[in-house]
Design brief:
566 residues, alpha/beta, GMP Synthetase, Chain A, domain 3, Beta-Lactamase, 4 domains, six-stranded antiparallel sheet, 18 strands, nucleotide-binding, General secretion pathway protein E
Protein backbone atom coordinates (compact mmCIF):
# COMPACT_ATOMS: atom_id res chain seq x y z
CA UNK A 1 0.00 0.00 0.00
CA UNK A 2 1.93 3.01 -1.29
CA UNK A 3 1.40 6.33 0.46
CA UNK A 4 0.17 9.28 -1.55
CA UNK A 5 2.13 10.92 -2.95
CA UNK A 6 5.87 10.24 -3.19
CA UNK A 7 8.31 13.02 -2.23
CA UNK A 8 8.67 14.57 -5.69
CA UNK A 9 4.97 14.36 -6.44
CA UNK A 10 4.14 15.88 -3.05
CA UNK A 11 6.56 18.75 -3.62
CA UNK A 12 4.97 19.42 -7.02
CA UNK A 13 1.47 19.42 -5.54
CA UNK A 14 2.39 21.74 -2.67
CA UNK A 15 4.21 24.18 -4.96
CA UNK A 16 1.33 24.21 -7.45
CA UNK A 17 -1.16 24.89 -4.66
CA UNK A 18 0.96 27.76 -3.35
CA UNK A 19 1.14 26.14 0.08
CA UNK A 20 4.95 26.33 0.14
CA UNK A 21 7.55 28.23 -1.88
CA UNK A 22 10.79 27.20 -3.54
CA UNK A 23 12.87 28.62 -0.67
CA UNK A 24 10.96 26.56 1.87
CA UNK A 25 11.31 23.43 -0.25
CA UNK A 26 15.05 24.08 -0.60
CA UNK A 27 15.45 24.35 3.19
CA UNK A 28 13.50 21.12 3.68
CA UNK A 29 15.66 19.32 1.10
CA UNK A 30 18.82 20.47 2.93
CA UNK A 31 17.41 19.16 6.22
CA UNK A 32 16.54 15.91 4.45
CA UNK A 33 20.19 15.45 3.45
CA UNK A 34 21.30 15.94 7.05
CA UNK A 35 18.67 13.64 8.57
CA UNK A 36 16.63 11.58 6.09
CA UNK A 37 12.94 11.91 6.89
CA UNK A 38 9.72 12.06 4.85
CA UNK A 39 9.27 15.43 3.18
CA UNK A 40 5.87 15.99 4.78
CA UNK A 41 7.32 15.42 8.27
CA UNK A 42 10.10 17.92 7.60
CA UNK A 43 7.79 20.61 6.23
CA UNK A 44 5.48 20.19 9.22
CA UNK A 45 8.36 20.25 11.69
CA UNK A 46 9.85 23.38 10.13
CA UNK A 47 6.51 25.15 10.38
CA UNK A 48 6.25 25.62 6.61
CA UNK A 49 3.11 23.51 6.34
CA UNK A 50 0.08 22.76 8.49
CA UNK A 51 -1.52 19.34 8.66
CA UNK A 52 -4.85 20.81 7.53
CA UNK A 53 -3.17 22.27 4.43
CA UNK A 54 -1.45 18.95 3.73
CA UNK A 55 -4.76 17.09 4.02
CA UNK A 56 -6.44 19.57 1.71
CA UNK A 57 -3.82 19.33 -1.04
CA UNK A 58 -3.68 15.52 -0.99
CA UNK A 59 -7.46 15.26 -0.77
CA UNK A 60 -7.92 17.42 -3.85
CA UNK A 61 -5.34 15.42 -5.77
CA UNK A 62 -6.80 12.04 -4.82
CA UNK A 63 -10.50 12.88 -4.78
CA UNK A 64 -10.82 11.36 -1.32
CA UNK A 65 -12.70 12.94 1.58
CA UNK A 66 -10.27 14.15 4.30
CA UNK A 67 -10.55 13.59 8.05
CA UNK A 68 -8.93 15.62 10.83
CA UNK A 69 -7.68 12.98 13.26
CA UNK A 70 -6.86 15.57 15.92
CA UNK A 71 -10.60 16.22 16.21
CA UNK A 72 -11.90 12.68 15.71
CA UNK A 73 -12.60 10.17 18.48
CA UNK A 74 -12.69 6.56 17.24
CA UNK A 75 -15.33 4.13 18.45
CA UNK A 76 -14.13 1.65 21.05
CA UNK A 77 -15.96 -1.02 19.04
CA UNK A 78 -14.06 -0.09 15.89
CA UNK A 79 -10.72 -0.17 17.71
CA UNK A 80 -11.56 -3.53 19.29
CA UNK A 81 -12.38 -5.01 15.88
CA UNK A 82 -8.95 -4.32 14.35
CA UNK A 83 -5.84 -5.54 16.23
CA UNK A 84 -3.23 -2.88 16.91
CA UNK A 85 -0.53 -4.86 15.06
CA UNK A 86 -2.69 -4.91 11.92
CA UNK A 87 -3.37 -1.18 12.24
CA UNK A 88 0.32 -0.35 12.64
CA UNK A 89 1.44 -2.62 9.82
CA UNK A 90 -1.11 -1.25 7.36
CA UNK A 91 -1.10 2.33 8.68
CA UNK A 92 -4.84 2.66 9.25
CA UNK A 93 -7.02 3.82 12.11
CA UNK A 94 -10.55 2.43 12.63
CA UNK A 95 -12.92 5.35 13.22
CA UNK A 96 -16.46 4.01 13.47
CA UNK A 97 -18.38 0.76 13.19
CA UNK A 98 -21.97 0.66 11.99
CA UNK A 99 -23.10 -2.71 13.30
CA UNK A 100 -26.52 -2.51 11.65
CA UNK A 101 -25.05 -1.98 8.18
CA UNK A 102 -21.81 -3.88 8.93
CA UNK A 103 -19.74 -0.92 7.70
CA UNK A 104 -16.33 0.00 9.12
CA UNK A 105 -14.94 3.50 8.47
CA UNK A 106 -11.16 3.86 8.59
CA UNK A 107 -8.56 6.58 8.06
CA UNK A 108 -5.57 5.87 5.82
CA UNK A 109 -2.88 7.86 4.05
CA UNK A 110 -2.82 5.62 0.98
CA UNK A 111 -3.78 6.12 -2.66
CA UNK A 112 -4.78 2.63 -3.47
CA UNK A 113 -6.84 1.36 -0.56
CA UNK A 114 -8.18 -1.75 -2.33
CA UNK A 115 -5.50 -3.99 -0.85
CA UNK A 116 -6.14 -2.92 2.73
CA UNK A 117 -9.90 -3.20 2.22
CA UNK A 118 -9.46 -6.80 1.04
CA UNK A 119 -7.29 -7.55 4.07
CA UNK A 120 -9.85 -6.05 6.44
CA UNK A 121 -12.74 -7.97 4.89
CA UNK A 122 -10.73 -11.18 5.23
CA UNK A 123 -9.82 -10.34 8.83
CA UNK A 124 -13.40 -9.37 9.76
CA UNK A 125 -15.82 -11.52 7.72
CA UNK A 126 -18.79 -9.91 9.48
CA UNK A 127 -18.12 -6.68 7.57
CA UNK A 128 -19.96 -5.93 4.33
CA UNK A 129 -18.10 -2.77 3.42
CA UNK A 130 -15.10 -0.65 4.42
CA UNK A 131 -15.14 3.11 3.84
CA UNK A 132 -11.82 4.96 3.68
CA UNK A 133 -11.14 8.58 4.64
CA UNK A 134 -7.90 10.39 3.90
CA UNK A 135 -5.53 11.39 6.71
CA UNK A 136 -2.14 13.07 6.56
CA UNK A 137 0.61 10.49 7.10
CA UNK A 138 2.36 12.19 10.05
CA UNK A 139 -0.85 12.61 12.06
CA UNK A 140 -2.02 9.07 11.23
CA UNK A 141 0.91 7.38 12.96
CA UNK A 142 0.45 9.51 16.07
CA UNK A 143 -3.28 8.84 16.13
CA UNK A 144 -2.80 5.07 15.93
CA UNK A 145 -0.51 5.11 18.97
CA UNK A 146 -2.68 7.63 20.78
CA UNK A 147 -5.96 5.75 20.47
CA UNK A 148 -4.71 2.20 20.81
CA UNK A 149 -2.86 3.29 23.93
CA UNK A 150 0.36 2.19 25.54
CA UNK A 151 1.53 -1.40 25.66
CA UNK A 152 0.42 -1.66 29.28
CA UNK A 153 -3.11 -0.39 29.78
CA UNK A 154 -4.51 1.55 32.70
CA UNK A 155 -6.52 -1.48 33.77
CA UNK A 156 -3.48 -3.75 33.87
CA UNK A 157 -1.55 -1.23 35.99
CA UNK A 158 -4.45 -1.00 38.44
CA UNK A 159 -4.64 -4.79 38.56
CA UNK A 160 -0.91 -4.92 39.33
CA UNK A 161 -1.36 -2.44 42.18
CA UNK A 162 -4.43 -4.17 43.59
CA UNK A 163 -2.87 -7.64 43.62
CA UNK A 164 0.56 -6.54 44.85
CA UNK A 165 1.74 -5.15 48.16
CA UNK A 166 0.13 -1.89 49.29
CA UNK A 167 2.19 1.18 48.40
CA UNK A 168 4.43 2.41 51.21
CA UNK A 169 3.72 5.82 52.73
CA UNK A 170 5.52 8.53 50.76
CA UNK A 171 7.82 10.66 52.87
CA UNK A 172 8.20 14.30 51.83
CA UNK A 173 11.34 14.54 49.76
CA UNK A 174 11.64 10.74 49.64
CA UNK A 175 13.03 8.94 46.62
CA UNK A 176 12.07 5.76 44.87
CA UNK A 177 8.27 6.02 44.77
CA UNK A 178 6.76 2.84 43.31
CA UNK A 179 7.28 2.46 39.57
CA UNK A 180 3.75 1.13 39.15
CA UNK A 181 2.39 4.42 40.50
CA UNK A 182 4.64 6.35 38.13
CA UNK A 183 3.18 4.34 35.26
CA UNK A 184 -0.30 4.85 36.69
CA UNK A 185 0.06 8.64 36.58
CA UNK A 186 1.41 8.45 33.03
CA UNK A 187 -1.48 6.21 31.98
CA UNK A 188 -4.02 8.58 33.57
CA UNK A 189 -2.53 11.48 31.63
CA UNK A 190 -2.75 9.48 28.41
CA UNK A 191 -6.33 8.50 29.22
CA UNK A 192 -7.26 12.18 29.66
CA UNK A 193 -5.66 13.04 26.31
CA UNK A 194 -7.60 10.23 24.61
CA UNK A 195 -10.82 11.55 26.16
CA UNK A 196 -9.99 15.01 24.76
CA UNK A 197 -10.16 16.47 28.27
CA UNK A 198 -9.21 20.09 28.88
CA UNK A 199 -8.51 19.62 32.61
CA UNK A 200 -7.79 16.78 35.05
CA UNK A 201 -8.77 17.12 38.71
CA UNK A 202 -7.09 14.94 41.36
CA UNK A 203 -9.28 15.41 44.46
CA UNK A 204 -8.26 13.59 47.66
CA UNK A 205 -10.99 12.60 50.13
CA UNK A 206 -10.64 10.89 53.51
CA UNK A 207 -10.51 7.35 52.10
CA UNK A 208 -10.28 7.68 48.33
CA UNK A 209 -8.94 9.79 45.49
CA UNK A 210 -11.51 11.14 43.06
CA UNK A 211 -10.31 11.80 39.50
CA UNK A 212 -12.44 13.98 37.26
CA UNK A 213 -11.89 15.21 33.71
CA UNK A 214 -13.45 18.27 32.14
CA UNK A 215 -14.73 17.06 28.78
CA UNK A 216 -16.63 19.40 26.49
CA UNK A 217 -16.75 21.90 29.35
CA UNK A 218 -18.35 19.55 31.91
CA UNK A 219 -16.58 17.72 34.75
CA UNK A 220 -17.04 13.93 34.75
CA UNK A 221 -15.66 11.46 37.26
CA UNK A 222 -13.44 8.99 35.41
CA UNK A 223 -11.77 7.11 38.26
CA UNK A 224 -11.79 6.57 42.02
CA UNK A 225 -8.64 5.14 43.63
CA UNK A 226 -7.62 4.20 47.15
CA UNK A 227 -6.31 7.17 49.13
CA UNK A 228 -2.99 5.43 49.83
CA UNK A 229 -1.99 5.80 46.18
CA UNK A 230 -2.23 9.59 46.16
CA UNK A 231 0.92 10.78 48.02
CA UNK A 232 3.27 8.99 45.60
CA UNK A 233 1.13 10.03 42.62
CA UNK A 234 1.31 13.66 43.75
CA UNK A 235 5.10 13.40 44.00
CA UNK A 236 5.24 12.08 40.43
CA UNK A 237 3.23 15.07 39.15
CA UNK A 238 5.37 17.52 41.14
CA UNK A 239 8.58 16.00 39.81
CA UNK A 240 7.29 16.36 36.25
CA UNK A 241 6.34 20.00 36.91
CA UNK A 242 9.58 20.89 38.71
CA UNK A 243 7.80 21.70 41.99
CA UNK A 244 9.01 21.31 45.57
CA UNK A 245 7.90 17.79 46.54
CA UNK A 246 8.56 18.47 50.24
CA UNK A 247 6.16 21.45 50.35
CA UNK A 248 2.52 20.50 50.86
CA UNK A 249 1.24 23.47 52.89
CA UNK A 250 1.26 26.28 50.33
CA UNK A 251 -0.08 26.54 46.76
CA UNK A 252 2.36 25.79 43.93
CA UNK A 253 2.15 26.23 40.16
CA UNK A 254 4.23 24.64 37.42
CA UNK A 255 4.15 23.16 33.96
CA UNK A 256 5.60 20.29 31.95
CA UNK A 257 5.35 18.57 28.57
CA UNK A 258 4.41 14.92 28.20
CA UNK A 259 5.09 12.87 25.09
CA UNK A 260 2.05 11.14 23.64
CA UNK A 261 2.52 9.12 20.45
CA UNK A 262 5.44 11.24 19.32
CA UNK A 263 4.16 14.72 20.05
CA UNK A 264 4.23 16.82 23.21
CA UNK A 265 1.14 17.69 25.24
CA UNK A 266 1.64 20.68 27.54
CA UNK A 267 0.29 20.57 31.09
CA UNK A 268 -0.14 23.45 33.50
CA UNK A 269 -0.19 22.28 37.12
CA UNK A 270 -1.84 23.89 40.15
CA UNK A 271 -1.45 22.41 43.66
CA UNK A 272 -3.66 23.59 46.52
CA UNK A 273 -3.54 22.27 50.12
CA UNK A 274 -6.94 20.97 51.31
CA UNK A 275 -8.31 19.08 54.31
CA UNK A 276 -7.40 15.61 53.01
CA UNK A 277 -4.24 16.45 51.08
CA UNK A 278 -3.14 18.42 48.08
CA UNK A 279 -5.75 19.03 45.42
CA UNK A 280 -4.02 19.02 42.01
CA UNK A 281 -5.53 20.33 38.78
CA UNK A 282 -3.82 19.96 35.41
CA UNK A 283 -4.77 22.02 32.33
CA UNK A 284 -4.03 20.23 29.03
CA UNK A 285 -2.91 21.94 25.86
CA UNK A 286 -2.54 19.81 22.74
CA UNK A 287 -0.67 21.97 20.24
CA UNK A 288 -0.95 19.31 17.54
CA UNK A 289 -4.61 20.17 17.02
CA UNK A 290 -3.55 23.31 15.23
CA UNK A 291 -5.61 26.35 14.38
CA UNK A 292 -9.26 26.25 13.36
CA UNK A 293 -9.83 28.07 10.05
CA UNK A 294 -12.12 31.09 10.28
CA UNK A 295 -14.64 29.37 8.02
CA UNK A 296 -14.83 26.41 10.45
CA UNK A 297 -15.83 28.40 13.54
CA UNK A 298 -19.47 27.55 12.85
CA UNK A 299 -20.61 31.11 12.16
CA UNK A 300 -23.62 31.95 10.04
CA UNK A 301 -23.04 33.81 6.79
CA UNK A 302 -24.03 37.17 8.30
CA UNK A 303 -21.82 36.83 11.37
CA UNK A 304 -18.88 35.61 9.29
CA UNK A 305 -19.23 38.58 6.95
CA UNK A 306 -19.38 40.97 9.93
CA UNK A 307 -16.26 39.42 11.44
CA UNK A 308 -14.37 39.55 8.14
CA UNK A 309 -15.35 43.21 7.74
CA UNK A 310 -13.96 43.95 11.21
CA UNK A 311 -10.58 42.36 10.57
CA UNK A 312 -10.36 44.06 7.16
CA UNK A 313 -10.08 47.46 8.85
CA UNK A 314 -6.42 48.57 8.86
CA UNK A 315 -6.14 49.82 12.44
CA UNK A 316 -7.93 49.69 15.75
CA UNK A 317 -8.70 47.33 18.64
CA UNK A 318 -10.72 44.09 18.42
CA UNK A 319 -11.67 42.41 21.69
CA UNK A 320 -12.82 38.84 22.33
CA UNK A 321 -14.61 38.44 25.66
CA UNK A 322 -15.85 35.53 27.71
CA UNK A 323 -15.02 33.45 30.79
CA UNK A 324 -12.09 31.06 31.07
CA UNK A 325 -12.54 28.10 28.75
CA UNK A 326 -14.96 29.82 26.38
CA UNK A 327 -12.74 29.47 23.30
CA UNK A 328 -11.37 33.02 23.17
CA UNK A 329 -7.85 31.89 22.24
CA UNK A 330 -9.17 29.60 19.50
CA UNK A 331 -11.06 32.50 17.94
CA UNK A 332 -8.07 34.85 18.16
CA UNK A 333 -5.77 32.34 16.47
CA UNK A 334 -8.35 31.80 13.72
CA UNK A 335 -8.35 35.55 13.09
CA UNK A 336 -4.54 35.69 13.05
CA UNK A 337 -4.31 32.69 10.71
CA UNK A 338 -6.66 34.53 8.33
CA UNK A 339 -4.34 37.56 8.40
CA UNK A 340 -1.07 35.61 8.35
CA UNK A 341 0.48 36.44 4.97
CA UNK A 342 3.94 37.43 3.78
CA UNK A 343 2.75 41.04 3.54
CA UNK A 344 2.10 41.42 7.29
CA UNK A 345 4.28 41.42 10.37
CA UNK A 346 2.32 39.85 13.24
CA UNK A 347 3.63 39.80 16.80
CA UNK A 348 2.07 38.26 19.89
CA UNK A 349 2.55 38.54 23.64
CA UNK A 350 1.01 35.56 25.42
CA UNK A 351 0.94 33.68 28.72
CA UNK A 352 1.60 31.00 27.57
CA UNK A 353 2.05 30.64 23.81
CA UNK A 354 -0.61 28.05 23.03
CA UNK A 355 -0.19 27.47 19.30
CA UNK A 356 3.16 28.13 17.60
CA UNK A 357 2.48 29.51 14.11
CA UNK A 358 4.85 30.09 11.19
CA UNK A 359 5.74 33.74 10.45
CA UNK A 360 4.30 34.99 13.76
CA UNK A 361 6.80 36.44 16.23
CA UNK A 362 5.46 34.99 19.49
CA UNK A 363 6.71 35.97 22.95
CA UNK A 364 5.75 34.15 26.13
CA UNK A 365 5.41 36.55 29.05
CA UNK A 366 6.33 33.91 31.62
CA UNK A 367 9.62 33.26 29.80
CA UNK A 368 10.49 36.85 29.00
CA UNK A 369 11.92 37.64 32.41
CA UNK A 370 11.28 41.15 33.64
CA UNK A 371 8.51 42.30 31.30
CA UNK A 372 4.75 42.10 31.63
CA UNK A 373 2.07 42.73 29.04
CA UNK A 374 2.35 46.54 29.12
CA UNK A 375 6.16 46.54 28.89
CA UNK A 376 6.00 43.89 26.18
CA UNK A 377 3.66 46.00 24.05
CA UNK A 378 6.06 48.96 24.32
CA UNK A 379 8.90 46.76 23.12
CA UNK A 380 6.87 45.24 20.27
CA UNK A 381 5.93 48.67 18.92
CA UNK A 382 9.63 49.19 18.15
CA UNK A 383 9.65 46.01 16.01
CA UNK A 384 7.66 47.49 13.09
CA UNK A 385 4.56 45.26 13.47
CA UNK A 386 1.33 45.52 11.49
CA UNK A 387 -0.74 43.35 13.83
CA UNK A 388 -0.39 42.80 17.58
CA UNK A 389 -1.97 40.14 19.77
CA UNK A 390 -2.00 40.88 23.50
CA UNK A 391 -3.01 37.74 25.36
CA UNK A 392 -5.18 39.54 27.92
CA UNK A 393 -5.93 43.07 29.07
CA UNK A 394 -5.49 42.61 32.80
CA UNK A 395 -4.76 46.09 34.11
CA UNK A 396 -4.87 49.79 33.33
CA UNK A 397 -1.33 49.91 31.94
CA UNK A 398 -2.02 47.12 29.44
CA UNK A 399 -5.32 48.71 28.42
CA UNK A 400 -3.58 52.05 27.85
CA UNK A 401 -0.83 50.44 25.76
CA UNK A 402 -3.34 48.46 23.69
CA UNK A 403 -5.23 51.65 22.81
CA UNK A 404 -1.96 53.48 22.18
CA UNK A 405 -0.96 50.80 19.67
CA UNK A 406 -4.38 51.06 17.99
CA UNK A 407 -4.10 54.86 17.79
CA UNK A 408 -0.68 54.65 16.15
CA UNK A 409 -1.91 52.66 13.16
CA UNK A 410 -1.82 49.02 14.26
CA UNK A 411 -4.40 46.29 14.36
CA UNK A 412 -4.59 45.07 17.95
CA UNK A 413 -6.31 41.92 19.20
CA UNK A 414 -6.84 41.01 22.84
CA UNK A 415 -9.14 39.31 25.33
CA UNK A 416 -11.08 40.72 28.26
CA UNK A 417 -13.18 39.09 30.95
CA UNK A 418 -16.69 40.44 30.43
CA UNK A 419 -20.14 38.86 30.33
CA UNK A 420 -21.19 40.27 26.97
CA UNK A 421 -19.95 42.43 24.12
CA UNK A 422 -21.49 45.58 25.58
CA UNK A 423 -20.26 44.53 29.04
CA UNK A 424 -16.70 45.05 27.81
CA UNK A 425 -17.24 48.81 27.52
CA UNK A 426 -17.78 49.58 31.24
CA UNK A 427 -14.96 47.13 32.01
CA UNK A 428 -12.58 49.21 29.86
CA UNK A 429 -13.76 52.36 31.60
CA UNK A 430 -12.99 50.72 34.96
CA UNK A 431 -9.46 50.19 33.65
CA UNK A 432 -9.11 53.91 33.01
CA UNK A 433 -9.81 54.03 29.26
CA UNK A 434 -11.61 57.30 28.50
CA UNK A 435 -14.68 57.42 26.23
CA UNK A 436 -12.77 59.74 23.89
CA UNK A 437 -9.97 57.19 23.52
CA UNK A 438 -12.41 54.36 22.78
CA UNK A 439 -14.33 56.31 20.15
CA UNK A 440 -12.76 55.86 16.75
CA UNK A 441 -10.23 53.27 17.94
CA UNK A 442 -12.45 50.31 18.85
CA UNK A 443 -13.24 48.20 15.77
CA UNK A 444 -15.53 45.72 17.46
CA UNK A 445 -16.14 43.20 20.22
CA UNK A 446 -16.84 39.47 20.04
CA UNK A 447 -18.41 37.77 23.08
CA UNK A 448 -18.59 34.00 23.06
CA UNK A 449 -19.46 30.84 24.95
CA UNK A 450 -19.02 27.15 24.17
CA UNK A 451 -21.96 24.75 24.37
CA UNK A 452 -21.98 21.02 23.81
CA UNK A 453 -23.17 19.84 20.41
CA UNK A 454 -25.95 17.26 20.26
CA UNK A 455 -24.76 13.79 19.30
CA UNK A 456 -26.12 13.25 15.77
CA UNK A 457 -26.38 9.49 16.33
CA UNK A 458 -28.83 9.54 19.22
CA UNK A 459 -30.53 12.96 19.44
CA UNK A 460 -34.30 12.59 19.64
CA UNK A 461 -37.28 14.82 18.93
CA UNK A 462 -39.70 15.59 21.76
CA UNK A 463 -42.70 17.86 22.18
CA UNK A 464 -41.86 21.23 23.69
CA UNK A 465 -42.68 21.06 27.39
CA UNK A 466 -44.61 23.87 29.12
CA UNK A 467 -41.46 25.13 30.87
CA UNK A 468 -39.59 25.38 27.56
CA UNK A 469 -42.40 26.97 25.52
CA UNK A 470 -41.60 30.59 26.55
CA UNK A 471 -38.13 30.15 25.06
CA UNK A 472 -38.84 28.16 21.92
CA UNK A 473 -42.46 28.01 20.81
CA UNK A 474 -43.45 30.22 17.89
CA UNK A 475 -47.16 29.78 18.69
CA UNK A 476 -49.37 28.12 21.28
CA UNK A 477 -49.41 24.80 19.47
CA UNK A 478 -48.62 21.90 21.78
CA UNK A 479 -47.37 19.97 18.74
CA UNK A 480 -44.21 22.08 18.46
CA UNK A 481 -41.06 20.00 18.97
CA UNK A 482 -37.46 20.39 20.01
CA UNK A 483 -34.34 18.21 20.08
CA UNK A 484 -33.24 16.45 23.25
CA UNK A 485 -30.09 14.60 24.29
CA UNK A 486 -30.39 10.86 24.78
CA UNK A 487 -27.01 9.10 24.91
CA UNK A 488 -25.36 6.23 23.05
CA UNK A 489 -22.04 4.40 22.86
CA UNK A 490 -20.78 6.86 20.22
CA UNK A 491 -21.02 9.80 22.68
CA UNK A 492 -20.16 7.77 25.80
CA UNK A 493 -23.85 7.97 26.80
CA UNK A 494 -23.67 11.72 27.36
CA UNK A 495 -26.01 12.78 24.56
CA UNK A 496 -23.46 15.31 23.32
CA UNK A 497 -20.33 15.06 21.20
CA UNK A 498 -18.02 18.01 20.66
CA UNK A 499 -18.75 21.68 21.20
CA UNK A 500 -19.81 24.67 19.17
CA UNK A 501 -19.25 28.37 19.71
CA UNK A 502 -22.03 30.87 20.33
CA UNK A 503 -20.88 34.31 19.27
CA UNK A 504 -22.20 37.80 19.80
CA UNK A 505 -20.51 40.09 17.27
CA UNK A 506 -20.69 43.84 17.84
CA UNK A 507 -19.04 45.96 15.12
CA UNK A 508 -18.51 49.56 16.20
CA UNK A 509 -20.08 51.79 13.54
CA UNK A 510 -20.09 55.60 13.41
CA UNK A 511 -23.31 55.81 15.41
CA UNK A 512 -21.88 53.70 18.21
CA UNK A 513 -18.66 55.72 18.01
CA UNK A 514 -20.63 58.92 18.62
CA UNK A 515 -22.40 57.38 21.61
CA UNK A 516 -19.08 56.18 23.04
CA UNK A 517 -17.55 59.64 22.66
CA UNK A 518 -20.47 61.15 24.58
CA UNK A 519 -20.16 58.57 27.36
CA UNK A 520 -23.61 57.10 26.67
CA UNK A 521 -25.01 54.60 29.14
CA UNK A 522 -25.48 50.89 28.45
CA UNK A 523 -29.18 51.22 27.60
CA UNK A 524 -28.51 53.76 24.86
CA UNK A 525 -25.68 51.65 23.45
CA UNK A 526 -27.88 48.53 23.46
CA UNK A 527 -30.77 50.35 21.81
CA UNK A 528 -28.51 51.55 19.00
CA UNK A 529 -27.00 48.09 18.51
CA UNK A 530 -30.44 46.48 18.32
CA UNK A 531 -31.57 49.00 15.72
CA UNK A 532 -28.60 47.84 13.64
CA UNK A 533 -29.73 44.20 13.93
CA UNK A 534 -27.41 43.18 16.76
CA UNK A 535 -28.04 39.65 18.09
CA UNK A 536 -27.01 38.91 21.68
CA UNK A 537 -25.58 35.67 23.04
CA UNK A 538 -28.92 34.43 24.37
CA UNK A 539 -30.71 34.99 21.06
CA UNK A 540 -27.82 33.37 19.17
CA UNK A 541 -28.02 30.38 21.49
CA UNK A 542 -31.78 29.99 21.13
CA UNK A 543 -31.34 30.03 17.36
CA UNK A 544 -28.90 27.10 17.64
CA UNK A 545 -31.37 25.26 19.89
CA UNK A 546 -34.17 25.74 17.34
CA UNK A 547 -31.81 24.53 14.61
CA UNK A 548 -31.23 21.30 16.56
CA UNK A 549 -27.51 21.90 17.13
CA UNK A 550 -27.77 21.82 20.93
CA UNK A 551 -30.43 21.60 23.63
CA UNK A 552 -32.21 24.18 25.73
CA UNK A 553 -30.87 22.51 28.88
CA UNK A 554 -27.31 22.92 27.62
CA UNK A 555 -27.88 26.55 26.67
CA UNK A 556 -29.34 27.34 30.11
CA UNK A 557 -26.23 25.79 31.70
CA UNK A 558 -23.98 28.28 29.92
CA UNK A 559 -25.95 31.44 29.06
CA UNK A 560 -28.49 33.55 30.96
CA UNK A 561 -31.41 33.62 28.51
CA UNK A 562 -34.03 35.29 30.69
CA UNK A 563 -33.99 38.45 28.62
CA UNK A 564 -34.45 36.49 25.41
CA UNK A 565 -37.73 34.76 26.25
CA UNK A 566 -40.39 35.09 23.63
Amino acid sequence: MAPLPDHDALATLLLAAGVIGQDQLRIARMEQQRAPRPLADLLLGLGFLSESALRGVISEASGRRPVDLARSLPDDAALALVPVEFARRNQLLPLSLDTDQAVLTIATAATDDRAVIDKLLALCPQLRRVECLLAAGPELGRAIERHYGQAQSLESILHELETGAPPPPQRPGGEGHPQALVRLVDALLLDAVKRDASDIHFEPEAHHLRIRCRIDGVLRQTRALHATYWPAMAVRIKVLAGLNIAETRVPQDGRFSFDVAGHAIDFRVSCMPTLHGENVVLRLLDRSKGVVPLSDLGLGAGDLAALEAMIARPEGLILVTGPTGSGKTTTLYSLLAHLNTEARSIMTLEDPVEYPMPRLRQTQVADSGRIGFAEGVRAMLRQDPDVLLIGEIRDADTAAMALRAAVTGHQVYSTLHAGSALGALPRLRELGVSPEMLAGNLIGIVAQRLVRRLCPDCAETVAIEPWARPYLATDDSAAATRMQARGCARCNFQGYRGRLALMEILPVDTGLDDLLARGANRSDLLAHAQRQGHVGLAAAGLARVRAGDTTLEELLRVVDVRGARR
